[in-house]
């Protein structure tokens, strides 16, 4: 055998069996814009439609995959006071298997599931955007897993979720105009 010792994939699958769950991995194709971004008044591009059911306000067509992995909230250990309150630097992390590569800008969907089975119809409970991804390699460069750092986005309008400790940016307007 090429690997005379334990197979890290099999060992980690056994160790972390209870931590694994199903995720949706939405990989945008940045070469193909959604039709909602096309300006009908003679060319040009506009901001994506906030109610577009084709691109979900991303502006690009995409492919969805179902992957198995686990995520955790990692604290970088820094907290500092600021105008809005106490800010904590946190990072959401995900590990998925080697079969599907993670890329910056991919969207991870947290799916409703029960007893390791997806609830159908599939319901997205949270979504995150990959901010950075690296392959985790073993001997001779074989990719074992992909690790990504994620930022939470609101499912309804793709805006960033809460930042720091209970801080929500509501815009710089004092009236009820949209941000």
Account of the protein in words:
The protein has one helix at about 10-15; strands at about 20-35, 60-80, 85-95, 105-110, 115, 115-120, 125-135, 145-155. It has about 180 residues and is mainly β. The strands form two sheets. The protein has a six-stranded antiparallel beta barrel with strand order 1-2-3-8-7-4. A two-stranded antiparallel ribbon has the order 5-6. The chain is globular. Residues about 165-170 and about 170-175 have low confidence and may be disordered.
Mean pLDDT: 75
Spatial shape: globular
Based on secondary structure, the structural category is: mainly beta
Helix content: under 10%
Task: Compute the separation of the termini in Å.
Answer: 59 Å
* Percentage of β-strand residues: over 45%
In spatial order, strands of the major sheet run: 1-2-3-8-7-4
Uncertain runs: 163-169, 171-175
Number of strands: 8
For the CA atoms, what is the radius of gyration? 19 Å
Oligomer designation: single chain
Q: Helical stretch count?
A: 1
Order of helices and strands: HEEEEEEEE
Major β-sheet, in short? 6 strands, antiparallel, barrel
């Amino acid at each position: 055998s090429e690997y005379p010792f334990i197979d890290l994939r099999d060992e980690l699958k056994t160790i972390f069996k209870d931590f694994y769950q199903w995720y949706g991995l939405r990989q945008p194709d940045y070469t193909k814009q959604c039709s909602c971004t096309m300006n009908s008044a003679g060319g040009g591009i506009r901001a994506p439609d906030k109610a577009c059911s084709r691109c979900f306000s991303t502006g690009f067509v995409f492919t969805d995959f179902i992957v198995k992995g686990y995520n955790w909230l990692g604290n970088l250990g820094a907290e500092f006071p600021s105008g809005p309150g106490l800010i904590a630097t946190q990072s959401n992390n995900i590990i998925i298997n080697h079969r599907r590569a993670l890329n910056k800008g991919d969207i991870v969907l947290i799916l409703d599931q029960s007893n390791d089975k997806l609830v159908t119809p599939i319901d997205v409970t949270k979504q995150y955007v990959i901010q950075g991804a690296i392959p985790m390699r073993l001997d001779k460069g074989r990719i074992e897993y992909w690790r990504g750092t994620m930022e939470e986005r609101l499912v309804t309008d793709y805006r960033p979720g809460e930042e720091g400790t209970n801080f929500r940016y509501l815009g710089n307007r004092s009236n009820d105009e949209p941000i």
